[in-house]
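=== RUN LOG ===
request id: a7f3
mode: sequence -> structure
chains: 1
length: 146
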Amino acid sequence: MQHIAIMRKSWGLTQKILSREKIIETRWYKNKARPWNFLKAGETIFFKDSGKPVTLKATISKVEQFEDLNEKQRQTLIKRFSAKDLGTTGISQEIEEHIKGKRYAIIIHLKDPKAIRPFQIDKTGYGTQASWLSVKDIKKIKRPVN
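=== RESULT ===
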């Protein structure tokens, strides 16, 4: 399986993946949603900032999933992983708001990040708000940059 992670451009995290300041990707959900139980070590994640082409990829080295989280557990996780996830130990108000009320967390450990030739994706069938796509072959949704 191959995956596409769509990142919030304003957070500037794709560049931190390339520079290896960010060595994990976290996903927080109120309900179990993809990629819950869809990720395996050795699979590839392609990354793109919202509204931009895919520009890099990394390999999954390890996946951790946490469920039925309460506020204290969320805070413990974000503090434990913030430096590896955000490239900083400070947690902004925007991040605090983002994880508030989330009951599920996926911690995806990354290795071997690489810049790639940019390409667009066709999200038809995935929904315009989808921030994670899982496909058997990236070529099926890959489109050239115009």
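=== NOTES ===
The two ends are 27 Å apart (CA to CA).
The chain has a mean pLDDT of 92.
=== END ===
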